[in-house]
Specification:
Blueprint: H1 4-7, H2 10-27, H3 32-37, H4 43-56, H5 62-67, H6 73-76, H7 83-99, H8 104-121
Helix pairs in contact: 2-4, 2-7, 7-8
Bound molecules: protoporphyrin IX containing FE.
Length: 125
C-alpha cells in the first residue's frame, strides 16, 4: 500500500526522517532561530516528531496513544512562530527528505499537507 508511511520504509524510515530533520535544523545557519527555540538536547523532541509523523503519515498512531491528542497547537503555543519560522521549519524538512533520498512521488505527496500543518502551528504574523 503506497501511503507515505510505507513509501518512507515504515518505522525505520520515519525514525530516520525525524532524526535527519533535527540534524539538518542543528546545522543549517538559516535555521538558527528555530534551533535556539529548542532544548539543547534534541533526543526527546526527535522521538516525539517520530511518533507524531508515524500516525500522520499513515502508520501507527503512536503520538495519539501517548498524549491522547494529535493537536500540536498547545505544545507550540509558548513559542513565537510566524511565517519566517514556519518557512525555516519547512526548509529543514525539504532538506531532510532530500538527504534521506525520499522519492519524488513522496515529496510531491507531502508538499501541500506539510505546508498546511506548519501553517496551523503558526501563531504570529
Ligand atoms: C512551524 C514551525 C515550527 C517551529 C518553529 C517548531 C518549534 C518547536 C519547538 C520549539 C518545540 C519544543 C521543543 C523542545 O521541547 O525542545 C516543538 C515541539 C514539537 N514539534 Fe514543532 N515546530 C514547528 C512546526 C512543527 C510541525 C509542522 C510539526 C509536525 C509535523 C511539529 C512537531 C513537533 C512535535 C511533535 C513536538 C513535540 C510536542 C510535544 O511536546 O508533545 N512541529 N516544535
Amino acid at each position: 500500500m503506497s501511503n507515505p508511511y510505507n513509501l518512507l520504509g515504515g518505522e525505520a524510515g520515519v525514525r530516520n526522517l525525524a532524526n535527519e530533520f533535527y540534524n539538518v535544523m542543528a546545522t543549517r545557519p538559516d535555521a538558527k532561530k528555530i534551533r535556539l527555540m529548542h532544548a539543547e538536547n534534541l533526543n526527546s523532541v526527535q522521538n516525539k516528531l517520530f511518533m507524531f509523523l508515524s500516525g500522520w503519515l499513515g502508520g501507527p498512531n503512536l503520538y495519539f496513544e501517548e498524549h491522547g491528542t494529535i493537536c500540536l497547537s498547545s505544545p507550540h503555543a509558548k513559542y513565537s512562530i510566524g511565517t519566517k519560522e514556519r518557512d525555516q521549519w519547512l526548509e529543514c524538512m525539504d532538506q531532510a527528505l532530500d538527504n534521506i533520498n525520499a522519492s519524488d512521488e513522496l515529496k510531491e505527496m507531502l508538499k501541500i499537507p506539510m505546508f498546511n500543518i506548519a501553517e496551523t502551528i503558526r501563531n504570529q504574523k
